[in-house]
Specification:
- By secondary structure, the protein is of the alpha/beta class.
- It has a single domain, classed as Rossmann fold.
- The longest helix is centred in the C-terminal third of the chain and has 19 residues.
- Helix 1 crosses helix 5.
- It starts with a strand and ends in a 5-residue tail after the last helix.
- The strands form 2 sheets. Strands 1, 2, 3, 4, 5 and 6 form a 6-stranded parallel β-sheet that branches. It has a two-stranded antiparallel ribbon with strand order 7-8.
């Protein structure tokens, strides 16, 4: 069975991104092994540490290499992705000849308080992913705007959002199973 790592860009307790990620994981768990990847404890990337990387970097890089695909669920911070996600992307891509992301399938769901649903975060993440040769699913794109009204204490509460996420995860499931050269 193929495996999907879910990377959430917010470590805030009760985060909107976390609730969206949990719902997506529920939709995918019948077809894939799902692993939530902790990125909150990673020391900030510093090239000076590449020769003797911190243990947490070694474990993180090794874990990323074992997975088949990645689902990034990110809030938008100042029209970009949060530093947690950028840091994780940088750490696992180094040293350059050992890029752990190389050739893996990916997708992104962005969330935002406003109507455009984290458009900037989504596209900045896609731009970085392209550089790292992550095969990002081109469509459907997932921008979840006005997210605070779509979730509650139990998770995703809005039925239209739940339906959209079912469509999105079905497409992602197909994307993950495509041969790398498709």
């Amino acid at each position: 069975m193929k495996s999907i790592g879910i990377i959430v860009g917010s470590i805030r307790h009760d985060s909107f991104s976390g609730k969206i990620a949990l719902y997506a994981a529920e939709l995918l768990k019948e077809r894939f092994d799902i692993a939530f990847i902790d990125i909150g404890s990673l020391v900030i990337y510093n090239q000076d540490l590449d020769n003797e990387p911190p243990e947490e970097w070694k474990h993180f890089r090794a874990r990323i290499k074992t997975l088949d695909a990645y689902l990034f669920v990110t809030p938008e911070y100042n029209r970009s992705m949060p530093p947690l996600i950028k840091n994780a992307l940088d750490i696992a891509s180094r040293p350059m000849r050992e890029n752990a992301w190389n050739g893996k399938a990916g997708a992104v769901i962005s969330v935002g308080a406003g109507k455009i649903g984290g458009f900037g975060a989504n596209h900045h993440l896609r731009q970085t992913a392209a550089c790292l040769n992550i095969r990002m699913m081109p469509a459907p794109e997932a921008y979840i705007g006005e997210v605070s009204g779509l979730v509650d204490a139990e998770g995703v509460s809005d039925e239209a959002t739940r339906a959209f996420l079912r469509t999105f995860t079905d497409a992602f499931a197909k994307w993950v199973t495509l041969p790398a050269n498709s």
